[in-house]
Fold this protein.
Amino acid sequence: MKNFGIWLIRVALILFVLGLFFGHLASESYRITQPKSGVMGFLSLRPLHVSSAYLGIITAGLGFVTLIIAKMKTTRFGTFLQYLHFSLWVIALLGIFYSYFTGDFGGREYWEFNPIWALPIFVSFIVFLVFYLHQVGFSMKWPVYYWMWLTGIIFFIITFIENYLWIFPYFRQHFIADMTIQWKVNGSLVGAINQIIYGVAFYLMEKISGDEKSSYQKLSFAMYFLGMFNLMFNWGHHIYLLPTEKYIHYIAYAVSMTEWIILIRIFYKWSQQIKENKQFYYFFPYRFLMASDYWITINLTLALFMSIPAINLYTHGTHITVAHAMGTTIGINTMIILAGVFYFIKPTFNSAKWRLYGSIAFWIVQVTLLLFLISLIGMGVQRAIWQAGLTSESFSKMSSSSGNWVLLFIILGTILMFSMASFFIYLFIQSWKKNELKIEE
Amino acid sequence: MLNLFAHPKRIFLLLIVCFLTFSIWIYAIPLFSPTPYSEKELHLVAEGRLVWQKYNCHTCHQLYGLGGYLGPDLTNVYSRTANNEAYIKGIIKSGVKQMPAFKISDDEMKALLHFLKNVDATGTSNPQDYQPEIIGTFSLEKK
């Protein structure tokens, strides 16, 4: 086999379906009043849900990059690197799930598995970096998305090493420094993955519009560097409440506010965007990109307000943060990934009937996701009021009084699970058929 | 006009150098933060953090608002009640509501309690203890 990209995408689609399933089971825990242990307990279900979704996004990102760059040239060394990367990645995934199913924890939030399984992840990324540079080379001028992919891979490696600094007692003994580094890692890792995924979005946009110049324009590079700058320095907004060095908070506050530039640019291009939306509406890869653009606007607005420390003081530690995280992973990352999978696997529908089914499922996902996020914000507001001391109820009573929001959250989550899974399963089946688009070199 | 973006490699390298410098500065924080704890106590704190991870406590609980949402924030649980150690031990060993009972050894319990005591001493996670300011930040001093 000369291109493992399609296999990585298939693995990602399986991970997404698992992520939805475990997420649904985990959401049920909010209604259960009895303790539950073992694999079906929340202690296992939350890591299973988060890791399936998060690793699914990473796997899909690597799959798209592989699919694109593996076609640039075929060498024995390149093929060997692909084999090695894929094998290490699958070993890591199997190890992580084994760890969760046997209750062998020991890691940290989002990476709860036994730390031994971090090794194959780390080595696989080193192999992927070598493969990337081997395929892409330095002889030609790089479009902006090549830089974004390189940034994503390199920063993943750097921050992944940081992610395990806690194994040294020097860090663990100093709680505040340890927490600072932990959330520095979480912020930058998400930024690194976003660079890979947004790079894919850039690539797709270029291919769909046929405008290759935009990938070399100053403005594209300016936006890329702004994203990279935020990846490196805006993570401090996670820890405004943590009594760490004040300059970390001030840097994060100042850097986060630079994202207003992105929001202003979106509104500046709004009318052009609407025109484009109408033109390509029936082309599914474009339609999912269009959806991700709208979700960027919603999530960025929410994120910008949450990055203001005085507002963050009340939203921090509430489900409003979860709404932001879900909005980004589902609304932005997953929409771009679905756009990519449609583009590479099933760019057009052959029959009007299937196109109609696709359209219905598409709108169910978008509307349900919006309501799902509203239900999370509702839970968050209730908790924020309690945290601010505006009600003197106990934690347990406050949680119980969110019952209606929780019920809505579970119902909408279930609809979201079925509607999104229908896309993943459909695309997984289509990936075995010969209807893929020829990738331009 | 100078076109910075004609040389993305240079900006890329410059940003990476800035990031690494900033990171090393953060790693050095413990070196410049005097601690009132003995070596033995610090060892217990470090072990307690591992117990926190081993039992996945963060899945449901938060420290400084960071963690799960099913249970309450535990930053200041150590000083919440008068007989705090017995209270915490009781909850961990017998469970409550959705929280299962944990079979935790005495050594692990000792380390976990040291860890929670250490966390509690670092500050407060209660938003009511803070004062928002006009420039968008907040401070610990209530006005």
Q: What stands out?
A: The first strand of chain B starts at residue 62 and ends at 63. Chain B touches chain A through 64 residues (CB under 8 Å).
